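I'm curious: can you give me some protein's one-letter sequence along with its backbone structure tokens because I've never seen that pairing?
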Amino acid sequence: LKLQFLYLIVHHDTHGAPPVGVVDGQPVTMSRAYTVQGTGFFRHHIVCALLSGKQIIFDNIRTDGEEVGLKEYEVNFLRLVDRITNGSGIEINETGTRVKVRPGVVVGGTVAHACSLARGIGYCLEPLLVLAPFAKKAMEVTLTGITNSGLDIGVDTFRTVSIPLLRHFKIEAAIRIKKRGIAPTGGGEVVFTAQTVRKVESIDLTEPGKIKRVRGVGFTCRTSPDLVNRAISTAKGLLLKLLPDVFIAADTFTGDDAGRSPGYGLTLVAESTSAGACGLSEEIICDKSAMEKQVNAEDVGLAAAKLLLDHVKLSGNVDAHHQMTALLLMATSKEEVSKVRLGPLTAAGDVACNLAREFFGVTFTSKRDDTYAFSPTTIYTCVGCSLTNVSKKSA
């Protein structure tokens, strides 16, 4: 059964397909395959391959150990790629240890996709933030599965932080949470919509600022609302010692809208006085397994508040969860200087810089800023490759 599930070959006719995009006035065309060992940052390699038109091969995927080859959630993501593109070819060998992706055109449009329950909806939603602006048609994707997972960015963070980040690049997008779904059985539903652009605008997110307020949302699914109220009260108790403007809403879901598993969680977002800054977010989820261990709601709220404060100390104008998205959009932006202030570069941020160089020929420069010795930041600068969406008419 595993081999039958993993062996997936998708071929589409690529004859007559338009180019993926244009860089420096020249159509993006197929070139020699780019080879990656393993599946590190699997989704973002595929995103860059689709936007640049370069074939990509993932080789030696988990050849050691009991579970060989692709994971179920990685195959699930490939199915999503197949749904939103036209002319793509995806080949997986019988053991799942080698994958070849021949990129086609990102079509977009209206798509429904059931995400793997091994990961959250954020696993599929995060790469769409970069792909959607370059689609042929405005994208409306309905994703079902686990809305809030400790492994991936939660849907509340997408709504309060990711969408405002896209607006800095002049990309109009929105997320609507129709149903909540907690691990292990999910049942949530989210609708992501995004408009296309001809070119992504450059940004300057370097103005330092101070935290002016904290906003958040606590949610419950198939469990007592008292649990999340206790978590909210504890988180506010700590945060109000530092600033007076703290508001955390309680969002209770019932019936079919509450998914199939019990649980609750808390998402906190710190907002800055700087116009060139996005919110800094942290999320704590107490799912069925954590509730069986009798985790106190007060501990959940206290942990969320402490994580947010640690994040504020270490982050710049874009938080650690969105370094990959911000840097890739900067690389594909207009041929102008883009700047962003970041905290310590995460593994994802480091990979984003490498992907920008390998797929788009964009190199980032960095300059450390020690104005605040207790919280040093670094300004990353690049000149975008001016990737053009050939399906979008110029104004």
